[in-house]
Request: fold
Amino acid sequence: MAETHKKEVTKAEELAKNQREISVSEFFTKNRHLLGFDNPRKALLTTIKEAVDNALDACEEAKILPDIYIEINQKGEDRFHVTVQDNGPGIVKEQIPRIFAKLLYGSKFHTMKQSRGQQGIGISAAAMYGQLTTGKSVKITSKIGPKRPANYYELHLDTQKNEPEINKDTEIEWFPDHGTKVEIELEAKYQKGRQGVDEYLKQTAIANPHVKIVYKDPENQTMEFPRVTKDLPIEPKEIKPHPHGIELGILMKMLRGTKASTLQSFLTNDFSRVSPKVAKEICEKAKVYEKSRPGRIAAQEADNLWNAIKETKIMAPPTNCLSPIGEDLILKGLKKEINADFYAAVTRPPAVYRGNPFLVEVGIAYGGEIPGDELIRVIRFANRVPLLYQQGACGTTKSIMSTAWKNYGIPQSKGALPSGPAVLMVHIASVWVPFTSESKEAIAHYPEIIKELKLALQEVGRKLATYVRKKRLAEHESKKKSYIEKYLPHIGIGLKEILDLKEPEEKKMLEILKDTLERSRDKDEGSLSN
Reply:
């Protein structure tokens, strides 16, 4: 009996020796598909996407109109060298290694305001993928002022420690006044199409009409996407968390970490939209003294406080943390990149999910050169960033498919996207976009978001329906008039024979008929244009 017990303990001790901490870098090295590097084609797109997102955020925070240069050079059959350069404020020397060679390092994760990057993973994950597939270091050149030197780094990521390894650190001559250049060599595949780099940049230009992009592809062809406005987006303001979006565990953590000396001041200062009166009401409902020290609140008291918050009516969070594109700029962006006959856009008022403010914008382009014999094309954005993959899993697609487009003059099969000559653009702006995975390609199906999406789609659908009805009416009238024009000479001959008209009288009768026809046509064309 004693020997059996001894063997069991020994086995447990042997198993314990195999237990060790897993680095976040090691985890994502084995699960890189979670970050958008699941195939060579997508890897190239994700690398450029992360670098461009960082460039746009940096420029906008520094109030600089973004100029972004992108170049892809093919080094072998499946190897590419990617360069992304911007005119942003640059990066302080000490921060460069951790930004580009350490996962989960950034400034936006704890910030409650709209931004493209959120997790502090993107660009360092691209550097890690390049390192894994080619063994090459990520190269960074950055300059923070015209009289400052440019810092040049070559970095590796130590995946066991999730720490940067500096292979080269020097100062070089670089002629821009300020900016950042990132170079990554990686295993990838270049293809044009709706899920390629070219399409991503085109969509980026639509959602960011203030940016100028110059792009040189692997075939040595240069494309330029000019800016259509010199106005920077509205700068989003940082807000504090809303109490209705806080979970119990987070509330307990905030109670322990607050600098407030009383529970009432904690509720007032650490949350948005909580006045002293509301804070006192919450404390009374929770049966907790408002002058209590937050750090001494017991677990049961915290639970009571959390339930009292849920039962208390609190004003919705402020929405100046959001920066919508706006209806005018959505129309400009669509007109710049898509040749159509009709354009419309809608920006919904802000709403809230789990205490997080968000808003929905929808634009549509119809007719023109858009193919009419296939399903409508959907282009999705989150915080101005194009989402090219996982369309079927996205809450945006679900909302479009569940909207009755037949009511707006567009054919639609049950459970499918509508069909016709249309491009539908959908943008969600939020302080925290609820993506379904770390690759940030699909929006989660929150009921509040689905509701706002459907309202925006219905609103833009009504605008489209008005145009479609007028167009069909004009086409119908035009078809009837074409019959009259075709048979008008024969009518004239018949009238001449029946009424025995002489030639001047015949001409006069035909002129009256033509004049009536022209006035009717002008009236219909005026109705359509209105």
